[in-house]
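Give me structure tokens for this 103-residue protein.
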Amino acid sequence: MSTELLIALIVVAVIVIALLALTVGKKARAEKHERGRVEAGEHREEARIRSARADSREAEAEERAARAKREQAQAEEHAQAAKQERRVAEERLARADDIDPDR
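Here you go.
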């Protein structure tokens, strides 16, 4: 085998190895990108679920706050009605004391 043929074979072998390395590298990068896409999709799905759960909890909290506000307003109305009743009762008692001949 001549030296020139041996050099040509070595050059061809180096080129083939380089092409194989490039192909394997491209494939590895493509697989890494795909894994990244899948993982990103999983994170997005989890974020969507958590966001929906947060929206639900937020709506529930707002509903409870509105209910508490209504109950507070009713309690204040009852307190005002009780004050009015007490005032009327005290006025009646005072009037009764005023007109009672035994007092």
